[in-house]
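Quick bug: Polysaccharide deacetylase family protein output formatted oddly.
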Amino acid sequence: MLLVYTQKITPRITYVFKHVCTQILGLPVGFTSKIEEFVAHEGMKLSYGKQSLANEVFIQNVDLLLEQGMNDLEVKVQEWDGVPCFFAVGETSSIPFDIFAASFYLLSRYEEYLPHVKDKEGRFQASESLAFQEGFLEKPVIDIWAQKFRQVLSDKFPNQKFPKRQFTTQTIVAVTEAYCYKKKGIVRVVLGLLLDLIRFKPKYVLHRLQVMTKMKKDPYDIYTKVIQFLKKYRVPMKFMFQVSDFSTYDRNINHNRLELQSLIKSVADYAEVGLQPGYYANQKFGVLKEEKKRMEEIIKRPVESAINNHYNLLLPDTYNHMVELEFQKDFSMGYPEAVGLRAGTCTPFLFYDLNFEITTPLLVNPYAINSEAFGKLKENEIEYKVLEIKRQISMVEGKLISVFTNKDFSEYANARRNFSILKMLNEIQ
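Here's what came back:
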């Protein structure tokens, strides 16, 4: 066990030390504010405060982990051994910056609680983040810092063994519209045909008619080939289905249709199934509760996972609603418009609510790649970006999560490229 001495043990200190030391480094951690207990401890130990006690591993702190609420902080980024860092401290510290305050700032999404410019969807944009502005969005900086911190501990305690992590991958397939044309209902079919004719889209008119007359498979009906891929290459994959009421924003087929329910059940035989909340479920607790209930009635088991793939991730409300409804895992922490790590880590972490200063049981699984970001890149840039972020995450033995949609594997997208990316991510030759 690593014993940490600090004059005041706060919820923020407990939270971030457990993420860095336990979640990433695999070390159990304990805390004390009693000097005599710290001195008597014969195992690994460090002090966290304004000044060291003796010759121990000492991390000098800034005030962030002792505070409550949010303040407009001045964050100045510098480099430490070639890695961006911030919250610099004095030379007596074993590390030249407060690694725990910096990690907490990123993990808690502190900057998203402060005033910022939103996009047209009301989302916090990647371009507003410190990581983007300072050029480290595509680096798992918290995990890199943790590795360097591990070396500091190893130098002081050479007999200490650290558990070895393994690089892992996981792919999320977000299903907003299960089918493009199939089972949409006569009114939507007629309106769709008229719109395609008005917009002069003969290919879509033809496809729509072919699907309606069962001469052609629905373009979004890619489930068999994706599951075959999953089974052949043993790719860790989750499918997140939307079961929202029809609206301007949510255009899936009716959740009461047997075709949708049968599809969800059949996919659940091969992969874990979760919920992709609709537009209004993201805003209203009651709607989210109803959608979770619908999904559970379909799959006949508790729904543990959710992803807010496109709509605004409203902190802390979105996550607090998930906690109250007993979701266990979230996969929404990322930027749809950019490749990178929104929270600066490739290690799943518990959501910390800054408003109430508590650690919640919701495990946030940060994604690094969202296929929506490919639309902003040239074709030759996509492979480079994917391979580079994979390299960064594999170097720290982290978890690389990617998010695709069912449309990405259809004829209306570059399906061959996207399957190729899945192979690259999972090291399939």
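Actually, after a second look the formatting is fine. Residues 168-180+220-425 form a domain with the TIM Barrel fold (CATH 3.20.20.370). Closing.
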